[in-house]
Amino acid sequence: MAQGFRSSRRAAAALLGCLLLWSCAGASPAGSPASTSSTSPATTVPTTPAPAAATTTSPTTTSTTTTSTTAAAVTTTAPPAPADTKVPPDPLSGEPVSVAPVFVRALPHDPRAFTQGLVLGDGVFYESTGLYGESTVRIVDPGTGHVIRSTSLEDGFFGEGLELVGDRLIQLTWREGTAFIWDAETLAPLGAFSYEGEGWGLCAQEDRLVMSDGSSRLTFRDRTTFEPVGGVEVLRSGEPVERINELECVEDLVYANVWQTEEIVVIDPGTGRVVGQIDASSLLDRLGSTDGIDVLNGIAYDPGDESFYLTGKLWPAVFQVRLTPEVATDH
Length: 331
Known about the structure:
Elements: H1 9-24, E1 28-29, E2 63-65, E3 97-108, E4 115-121, E5 124-129, E6 136-140, E7 147-152, E8 159-165, E9 168-173, E10 178-183, E11 189-194, E12 202-204, E13 209-212, E14 217-221, E15 228-233, E16 235-236, E17 239-240, E18 244-250, E19 253-258, E20 263-268, E21 273-279, H2 282-285, E22 296-302, E23 307-312, E24 317-325, E25 327-328
Parallel strand pairs: 3-21
Antiparallel strand pairs: 1-25, 2-7, 3-24, 4-5, 5-6, 6-7, 8-9, 9-10, 10-11, 12-13, 13-14, 14-15, 16-17, 18-19, 19-20, 20-21, 22-23, 23-24
């Protein structure tokens, strides 16, 4: 496998076998990079919980409410298709592997939610929504879209990326330099961290957090203190990938939405290299109408069946998909 690509031994063996099958069939993964211009992802539920203790700043004053919001998705279900969820780099060319989302089903989503972060854990969605005066952190029933519990941020805070760390949620804010800590069950405020610069996306690996700030750089942070412990610049074919936004950590890879696009790039955080690229624009066709919606901006991973849940700002649906590397064939 290409240098710097790290995954579990089982996943790596499966992917290498997949690549060998393509080679034997006279085909090779498509390597042409997709268009990019934007950012925020992805987020995943950490498999090894660690406490995220509050340290520096005071918690915001919040009010907790319970609301019931159900939005009807435009499309329903399709038969699940077998797929390789882990995206391998092309060991022959070093170029990113192109990946197409395979639609599984659509779930209802609050069309008023300006989604900034999405996490799947404990059988529910945890969601961060943005905009000044409208930002929330909420717990959502995936099957119905019903908002089980929601806590509002003060008007001066713009909610951004979200991650579940142990029994706590960490929620970034855009330009306020504050990461709020919430109890994952009650959404009670537990404190806050301070940081420099903008906050866009957040996800958790076993030994660290990964954060984006809208640039081409990822910052690594301590899971307990939130202090920076390193970072890496994200490059595709040697060029920086700007406006990295929502993040989702899946094993040793980071899935990142590129802001103002329907593209997700798959990053090896050890090297910063983009090893995969996902064009999710086909999901727009399933919305029926794109009037009033904003861009893709929510990525959640289910390790149980290795599927992904994708949504966007003001989207009326969350789409469950599987990811299959595209194969280039001669016609």
